Amino acid sequence: MTQPPEPAPRRRSMEEKFPRSLWVRLVIYVAVGHLFAAFVYLLFTLGAQNQ
Question: What single-letter DSSP state applies at residue 19?
Fold first, then answer.
């Protein structure tokens, strides 16, 4: 007897489409971007208090 054909593969999730290193880099860039934005905000806040 013959085997029935395998079903077509489902659509891959986002995690399967992008390599793990890309996700790690994305998380690092977002974290560093937020830290930089917080630092700039702190500079402007402290600068405004000295006026």
Answer: -
- Distance between CA atoms of residues 12 and 43, nearest Å: 44
- What's the Cα-to-Cα distance from 35 to each of 14, 41, 50, rounded to whole Å? 26, 10, 23
Torsion angle, CA of 23/25/27/29, rounded to 10 degrees? -150
pTM over 0.85: no
Lookup result for tokens 């399967």: 16
pLDDT in tens, 3-37: 777 766 665 665 568 899 999 999 999 999 999 99
Which tokens is 10 given? 């489902």
Spatial contact of 15 and 23, defined as CB atoms under 8 Å apart: yes
